[in-house]
Amino acid sequence: MNETVALRAVEPADVDLLYQWENDMELWVYSETLKPFSKQQLTQYLKGINLDIYQSKELRLMIETEGDSPKTVGIIDMFDFDPYHSRAGVGIMVHKAFRDRGYAAMGLDLFIDYCFNTLGIHQLYCSIAVNNKKSIHLFQSKGFIRAGIKKQWRKVGREYIDEGFYQLLNR
């Protein structure tokens, strides 16, 4: 595959795509979403998303293929940014139509580089359900180390499943 990806800011024109992705109930188990979002809610969210990360404590970037006809394939988030401790959570989603092409790995590489080398963040972390093998493999392939297991942390249907806590330190 010769395609590469770039990260870009979320634009107001992305509201329809975000509406589709945020309301995909198959993804709710990973995002802890419990109810649908309206386009109005997402439009309001987009108005505040481009605030300085020291104000918003989050950063959301779109993952887009590069080339003659770029496609937005996913999204990557920094959340719970803590400037004092210099750490932040990270989450990623590549739309199912674009999975298994390396886009998540390329996007995560760019994001890690940006967080560590531009923002000077000391630590990134993520939480992944133990049955989400693809996400575990992705983050471990980028150097994230499992630091612990949160027992019966996520409710999925009528069951509770464990969740791994992973960390990557900026060396």
Automatic annotation (TrEMBL):
InterPro entries: Acyl_CoA_acyltransferase (IPR016181), GNAT_dom (IPR000182). It comes from Saccharicrinis carchari. SUPFAM superfamilies: Acyl-CoA N-acyltransferases (Nat). This is Diamine N-acetyltransferase. Residues 5-167 form the N-acetyltransferase domain. Keywords: Transferase. GO terms for molecular function: acyltransferase activity, transferring groups other than amino-acyl groups. The lineage of its organism: Bacteria, Pseudomonadati, Bacteroidota, Bacteroidia, Marinilabiliales. Pfam families: Acetyltransf_3. It comes from the Bacteria.
